[in-house]
Backbone:
């Protein structure tokens, strides 16, 4: 009797503990397709290597902000030799200047990862505001 | 069995010693290897990123502004304030928001204002200078007032987060990212040069300029002496629109246009007695 109760309890516990896994089985949770804009594809090199960029773009933006606002240094020469304007959204040589489709590039991944960066409360997507 | 184990040990000890020896040499040689790598690292790519201002940036030791009050007309006031508003996405709470784009926008209180540069009457711009028989013309002339980019800026001293700070070139500027909306700076500024965003301003911006961000609810804002334009080698928006009434330049350079103007004309500053050392001069 008590043995059965223990086993039943264990089964319930395991099922409950694994809830996130079985709940998502069969769901459409495939990693999103990130689409590079034609311009970004043609440029080939970003600020850092692809995987570095994926992991560290927020740190870069943070450093860039301090550099631009505090020291008025606005140009960034990467270790790969390319020059960038340290700006998220203004000008041809900024992040969105090259990654022209924010929805297919930034948003898809942010939505998938369930992060809501508040950059966009103030920074504007040039495509959206010039419509 | 025993024997093979022993030989294995022996072998392993020998290879360990070998590896240790090689490592020791490598450690000793590391600085030399690094030096060679740095020497051959010339060319376009370097091992650390390099940041710099733009080549065309306008610079000064201490930025200042000179406003020629005789050239300020109602048209100039209108042109100047509009230029600054458009350049910096400053909301205008008197306009009707676009109902399609911003549905359910709460109507704005008409007295609400965000001001970077605005028209002021003489008696409010220079309250301590109220002479009994002041020339009549000053009572009706429009004056333009903005942030004075004070040398001893009380707003900078009051800001607990260093969101407001003084750049080395004298511009008092804000890092909107850091502002927590405590409004200490507004209480500290004796000129009312700062405004607080009580609400999302997007619906009240007629046409958003993609060259400058908008602000989120809960931050303070003010004139930034067009730091983003100076960085590109452009004159401030108000200077361009002022038909010669406003000039900016280096106060520390005796040859600069502002210093020449100050040398040749009688000019005053707002509330000088407070010791804030404003960098905006008015030619009377
Ligand atoms: S005018 Fe006001 S906001 Fe501008 S620097 Fe002086 S104290 Fe600060
Ligand atoms: S409102 Fe913002 S800028 Fe003003 S004192 Fe507070 S944190 Fe600083
Ligand atoms: S200097 Fe720039 S920010 Fe300041 S009032 Fe003039 S246009 Fe506006």
Residues:
């Amino acid at each position: 009797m008590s043995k059965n109760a223990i086993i039943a309890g264990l089964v319930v516990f395991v099922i409950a503990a694994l809830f996130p896994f079985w709940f998502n089985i069969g769901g459409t949770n495939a990693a999103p397709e990130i689409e590079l804009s034609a311009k970004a594809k043609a440029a080939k090199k970003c600020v850092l290597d692809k995987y570095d960029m994926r992991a560290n773009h927020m740190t870069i933006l943070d450093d860039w902000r301090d550099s631009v606002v505090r020291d008025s240094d606005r140009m960034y020469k990467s270790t790969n030799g390319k020059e960038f304007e340290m700006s998220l959204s203004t000008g041809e040589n900024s992040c969105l200047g090259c990654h022209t489709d924010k929805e297919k590039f930034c948003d898809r991944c942010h939505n998938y990862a369930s992060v809501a960066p508040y950059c966009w409360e103030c920074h504007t997507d040039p495509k959206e505001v010039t419509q | 069995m025993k024997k093979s184990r022993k030989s294995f040990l022996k072998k392993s000890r020998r290879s360990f010693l070998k590896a240790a020896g090689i490592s020791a040499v490598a450690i000793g040689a590391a600085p030399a290897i690094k030096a060679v790598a740095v020497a051959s690292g010339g060319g376009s790519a370097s091992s650390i990123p390099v940041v710099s201002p733009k080549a065309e940036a306008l610079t000064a030791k201490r930025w200042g502004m000179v406003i020629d009050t005789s050239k300020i007309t109602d048209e100039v006031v209108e042109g100047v304030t509009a230029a600054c508003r458009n350049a910096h996405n400053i909301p205008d709470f008197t306009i009707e928001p676009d109902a399609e784009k911003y549905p359910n926008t709460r109507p704005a209180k008409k007295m609400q204002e965000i001001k970077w540069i605005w028209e002021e009457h003489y008696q409010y711009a220079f309250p301590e200078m109220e002479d009994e028989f002041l020339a009549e013309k000053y009572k009706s002339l429009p004056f333009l007032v903005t942030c004075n980019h004070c040398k001893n800026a009380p707003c900078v001293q009051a800001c607990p987060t260093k969101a407001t700070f003084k750049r080395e070139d004298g511009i008092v500027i804000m890092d909107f990212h850091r502002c927590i909306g405590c409004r200490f700076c507004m209480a500290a500024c004796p000129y009312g040069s700062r405004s607080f965003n009580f609400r999302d301003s997007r619906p009240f911006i007629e046409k958003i300029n993609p060259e400058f961000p908008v602000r989120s609810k809960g931050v303070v804002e003010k004139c930034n002496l067009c730091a983003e334009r100076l960085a590109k080698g452009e004159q401030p928006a108000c200077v361009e629109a002022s038909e010669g009434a406003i000039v900016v330049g280096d106060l520390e350079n005796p040859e600069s246009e502002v210093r020449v103007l100050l040398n040749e004309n009688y000019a005053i500053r707002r509330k000088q007695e407070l010791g804030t050392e404003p960098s905006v001069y008015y030619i009377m």
User: Anything to note?
Assistant: Residues 36-130 of chain A form one domain. Chain A has a mean pLDDT of 89.
